[in-house]
Amino acid sequence: MMKILIAPLALYTLAGTVMAQTLADSFDGKALDQEKWTTQQISTAQVSYPEPGRCGAAAIAATVKPSDGGTACGDEDCQRAEIRTIKTSWPKFGDEVWYSFSFRAEGQVAPTGSHRLVIGQWKGPGDDSPMIAQRFDDGVFYITVQDNDIRRVVASAAEKPGETLAAQEILGKLDRDDQQTVQGVQSLQSLETMLKRQPDFAKQFLSPELQKALRASDGAPERRRIAETLGLADSSLLSHFREFAFVAEPEKYLGPAAIEIISEAENRLPNPGGKWVEMVYRIKPGRMDNEIGPRRKGEVEIWANGKKIVTVRGNIGATLKKESKLELSGPYFKFGIYRKRVAEDLSLHFDEFSQAPKRSELVKICSAD
């Protein structure tokens, strides 16, 4: 088993502020390095060091139990156990940064009702929702990017990821300010989730006519009727939505986003449930409408288990306004669990983290077992 050494911080100065571009941690010391990570959003009881790790002696695990609470939840009842890169490691906002790490999920993720589960996120200046997020709703691993308050799935472990993207394209043409449309999409999600995850329950409580309509071909009269009943102008959404129904908060995907998604031929993400998944990200923030900071298209590239999955270009993150007076540093990276409260134990194992300005400077992860 190869032991991965902890790389030193590579420092530089920007406007009198010490910044760091390079950071690495193998967690073999079985202690959280306070010079690399902050712990404001995780308790001591939520941290453990399972042995062995992905490559070395140990990994770090963030665990949430049903009785756990969370900080910075806003108006919702959330549970949180996250570690965050320390501020001295944040890049200048707009710089190209590479990240690599391994992770796996251990525990329970219900096939329904587990909305909303974030298992890794990057946030830049002005971001409310993360500009990039790893999510694990209803046991499906997927990755999103954000254009201000509009969200897009860019990769997923769904059975048919192409269908997920097809449904999303239709959602992007709908009016997010039309409450009937929003309610129609939410109702469609409930119906599809029931049919897919609880078929016996659906057969008992949904009429045969409704079940037939949901599975009818495009253009069929019953398909058009149910779309009209739900207030959905495009009945073709019903053909693809079953591969989108796992996504939390589908209303956040309504409306146009200036995001281009270029998927590879083999673009299905691996399932991290019980198995190590190796992720590599290239992130270069930007927006064409920024008044300060990088005024160009943002870029994100993602690899999983050594395979290129997707390239994303466009307006990524929040628009930066002159009057905001935001500090142009980041994005910062957080790993762990952030979810709405559910009665499940869940543990995320995290290991072999590396952050660098070039891919060649990332710490190499040992070969898969």
Automatic annotation (TrEMBL):
Domain of life of the source: Bacteria
The keyword Signal is assigned to this record: yes
Keywords, ordered alphabetically: Signal
InterPro entries: Polysacc_lyase
Residues making up the signal peptide according to the UniProt record: 1-20
Pfam families: Polysacc_lyase
Name of the protein described by the UniProt record: Uncharacterized protein
UniProt source species: Sinorhizobium meliloti CCNWSX0020
